[in-house]
UniProtKB/TrEMBL annotation:
<dbReference type="GO" id="GO:0003677">
    <property type="term" value="F:DNA binding"/>
</dbReference>
<dbReference type="Pfam" id="PF02151">
    <property type="entry name" value="UVR"/>
</dbReference>
<dbReference type="InterPro" id="IPR036876">
    <property type="entry name" value="UVR_dom_sf"/>
</dbReference>
<dbReference type="InterPro" id="IPR004791">
    <property type="entry name" value="UvrC"/>
</dbReference>
<comment type="subunit">
    <text>Interacts with UvrB in an incision complex.</text>
</comment>
<keyword id="KW-0963">Cytoplasm</keyword>
<dbReference type="InterPro" id="IPR003583">
    <property type="entry name" value="Hlx-hairpin-Hlx_DNA-bd_motif"/>
</dbReference>
<keyword id="KW-0267">Excision nuclease</keyword>
<dbReference type="InterPro" id="IPR001162">
    <property type="entry name" value="UvrC_RNase_H_dom"/>
</dbReference>
<feature type="region of interest" description="Disordered">
    <location>
        <begin position="655"/>
        <end position="697"/>
    </location>
</feature>
<dbReference type="InterPro" id="IPR035901">
    <property type="entry name" value="GIY-YIG_endonuc_sf"/>
</dbReference>
<dbReference type="InterPro" id="IPR050066">
    <property type="entry name" value="UvrABC_protein_C"/>
</dbReference>
<dbReference type="Pfam" id="PF22920">
    <property type="entry name" value="UvrC_RNaseH"/>
</dbReference>
<keyword id="KW-0742">SOS response</keyword>
<dbReference type="Pfam" id="PF08459">
    <property type="entry name" value="UvrC_RNaseH_dom"/>
</dbReference>
<comment type="similarity">
    <text>Belongs to the UvrC family.</text>
</comment>
<feature type="domain" description="GIY-YIG">
    <location>
        <begin position="16"/>
        <end position="95"/>
    </location>
</feature>
């Protein structure tokens, strides 16, 4: 724990103006980002008597080793900069709402010639109309299924649409009347677009006029004794009413609003959001966060607004945002929301009427979500804490290993040797800090040597960063200066960036390194750390056969009980490292199978390679072409053509490429076998997929 007075700036150094500040720990990692109307007054609150601070704030300031700030012109700029830094640095002490899913939207692709209705998640595209979000994708599909009877808009994929147009036969929905079948020209593009516009109008809440129009048409059909048409219109009206019942009107006047409620206690807070569009609740979502600092309800609301509307892919800001408490000050947040929407936004607390009643419903949902989360979380926190304590006791560590890194080596019969590094903090996976390695120091299969290389490369970066920032204790020497000559060779250490607070750095060390393997792998990892002069990081290995834990220099393993939570956590870490490594290894192998002899031609970029293949049709035809014929391709000069011809002439025909899923030899568009250009003349195993998977590490 650091003494805050050791890094406290003098009051005269801190400007009395709006700005954003960052606390960093001893490893220069940003652990907290905040904004202030007056930096001087705000930072002074952190450097008072520790006994007066909130426990979590006290933990933050004693974990920090330095503080820095950036002055801005207005509070709106401070709000924007704070949000961008929180997203960039992912500080551990900031409020971060955990949302365990990507919420689906009902989307209508009005940017296409024949608009399509579908479920969409993630990034929002220009020209697409979105409705939602919905809590579940099945809720969207149920609604769409009811509406297709009245608005038979296309829902098929591009492939299905093209196939129907080619064969002249619509899909099943076209036969049963739930698609107007523009693919076979039953309706024109203009008529289909009009249907899509009507669908969007209905989803946007303009339902009354359309229903009255249908009822009038039904009455007219009955008067004209066209009873079948009248019956169809009657069924259409019933289908629309049924769809409307699923989204009951809760607010009058076709209101567009988001209602945000917060339920909190001393440790955690739950946020619930109801999305009301056209007076109907179109979607609901919720987040939960740990309160790692003393924070007001208004500040929690401000963070929720940032997360909800801050991303480029975030939700559109409605006309009204109803909240249980206003941020302090409220004006910068109001200006920011107005800027995001492009017109005025009403940010307020509902006082009476239907909106107050609906806010009470949202509040009850938030309270229930917090209670449910605590029921689950209590068990999780207790279990993880017990697991870390058991690991510390079994390995005789001074404290619980809050950060664990695990390494695994993967290859296929010695080819495409790669390694993975996964990170667990507080017993939970931190996927943003996962890393992948290609083994570059040698060729062939040697797990022990590979493990030594990976550990060396990872912790050499840590030492380089530590030396660069001058964080050596008195009398301590940079560890890598003690390495043997061969270990001092540069091995894939890229230049470190100036701004070193990002959590994706290699600069943050673990308390425990776990390797997938037994005594040899553990010894290699320990030797790599010793060569770098690192002696404050524990190392262990987990052997898969008997799930034994091996320590460096020990002849006998540490055997944890099968029911041990500590063993279960180590298994999860090891299995995650294995999954991450083998995924990368398969990706590399698939990329190698797709490689081309043109990849080895110096100065030939991707655009010109594609132009060559498009012109000749295949590498085989390009290889038989003359220099003059190659020069006919746009962008290819004579010198480049000579280089291409020489490179293809030197490359012997490669072995047939094998489909990794079926074991069959793949053919190009001319019916000739495709080849793997990176291993010319070397046959590719065409054994059964099950055999090959069994040989993977």
């Amino acid at each position: 724990m650091a003494d805050p007075s050791s890094y406290r700036p003098r009051p005269g150094e801190i400007p009395d103006s709006p700005g954003v500040y960052r606390f960093r720990d001893e490893h220069r990692r940003v652990i907290y980002v905040g904004k202030a109307k007056s930096l001087r007054q705000r930072l002074a609150n952190y450097f008072q008597d520790l006994a007066n601070l909130h426990p979590r704030t006290r933990t933050m300031v004693t974990t920090a080793a330095s503080v820095e700030w950036t002055v801005v012109s207005t509070e709106v700029e401070a709000l924007q900069l704070e949000y961008s830094w929180i997203k960039e640095y992912d500080p551990r002490f900031n409020v971060k709402y955990r949302d365990d899913k990507s919420y689906p939207y009902l989307a209508v692709t009005m940017n296409e010639q024949f608009p399509r209705v579908q479920v969409m998640r993630g990034h929002k595209k220009k020209g697409v109309r979105y409705f939602g979000p919905y809590g579940h994708a099945w809720a969207i599909r149920d609604t769409v299924d009811l509406l297709l009877r009245v608005f038979p808009v296309r829902t098929c994929s591009a492939g299905v649409f093209k196939n129907a147009a080619r064969t002249g036969r619509p899909c099943l929905l076209g036969y049963i009347g739930k698609c107007s079948a523009p693919c076979v020209e039953r309706v024109s593009a203009e008529e289909h677009r009009e249907l899509a516009e009507e669908f969007c109008d209905f989803m946007a809440g303009r339902t009354g006029t359309y229903l009255r129009r249908l009822e009038k048409r039904m009455t007219e059909a009955a008067e004209e004794m066209e009873y079948e048409r009248a019956a169809r219109l009657r069924d259409d009206i019933e289908a629309l009413k049924k769809a409307m019942e699923k989204n009951a009107v809760v607010l009058a006047d076709a209101t567009d609003a988001d209602l945000i409620a917060v339920a909190e206690d001393e440790l955690e807070a739950a946020v619930q959001i109801f999305h009301v569009r056209g007076g109907r609740v179109r979607g609901q979502r919720g987040w939960v966060t740990d309160k790692v600092e003393e924070i007001t309800t208004g500040a929690l609301v401000e963070h929720a607004l940032q997360q909800l509307y801050g991303e480029e892919t975030g939700d559109a800001v409605p006309k009204e945002v109803l909240v249980p408490a206003l941020p302090d000050p409220v004006e910068p947040v109001q200006q920011w929301l107005t800027g995001r929407r492009g017109s005025a936004v009403s940010l307020r607390i509902p006082q009476r009427g239907d909106k107050r009643a609906l806010m009470e419903t949202v509040q009850r949902n938030a309270q229930q979500a917090l209670a449910l989360h605590k029921t689950k979380r209590a068990s999780d926190l207790t279990t993880r804490s017990r697991a870390l304590e058991e690991i510390a006791d079994a390995l005789e560590l001074d404290s619980a290993p809050l950060r664990i890194e695990c390494y695994d080596i993967s290859h296929l019969q010695g080819d495409d040797v790669v390694a993975s590094m996964v990170v667990f903090e507080d017993g939970l996976a931190r996927k943003s800090e996962y890393r992948r390695f290609q083994i570059k120091g040698f060729r062939g299969q040697d797990d022990v040597r590979s493990m030594h290389e990976v550990i060396t490369r990872r912790f050499r970066r840590y030492l380089a960063e530590k030396e660069r920032t001058g964080e050596w204790a008195d009398g301590e020497e940079p560890g890598h200066a003690q390495q043997p000559a061969d270990a001092r060779q540069p091995v894939d250490v890229p230049a470190l960036k100036d701004d070193d607070g990002r959590p994706k750095r290699f600069a943050y060390p673990p308390q425990l390194v776990v390797v997938d393997g037994g005594q040899p792998q553990v010894a290699a990892a320990r030797r790599a750390l010793d060569e770098l002069g690192i002696d404050d990081i524990a190392v262990c290995g987990l052997a898969k056969r008997l799930e034994e834990v091996w320590l460096p220099g020990e002849d006998d393993p540490v055997v944890l009980p099968r029911t041990s939570e500590g063993l279960y956590l180590l298994q999860r870490v090891r299995d995650e490292a294995h999954r991450f490594a083998i995924t990368y290894q398969r990706t590399k192998r698939a990329k190698r199978f797709r490689s081309s002899p043109l990849d080895d031609v110096p100065g030939l970029g991707e655009t010109r390679k594609q132009a060559l293949i498009k012109h000749f049709g295949s590498v085989k035809k390009l290889r038989s072409a003359t220099i003059d014929q190659i020069c006919e391709v746009p962008g290819i000069g004579r010198k480049t053509a000579e280089t291409i011809a020489a490179a293809l002439a030197q490359a012997a025909p490669a072995a047939p490429a094998v489909n990794t899923a079926t074991g069959e030899i793949m053919e190009d568009e001319d019916g000739a076998p495709e080849t793997t250009a990176d291993a010319p003349g070397e046959p590719v195993s065409a054994g059964a997929p099950e055999e090959r998977r069994g040989q993977e590490r």
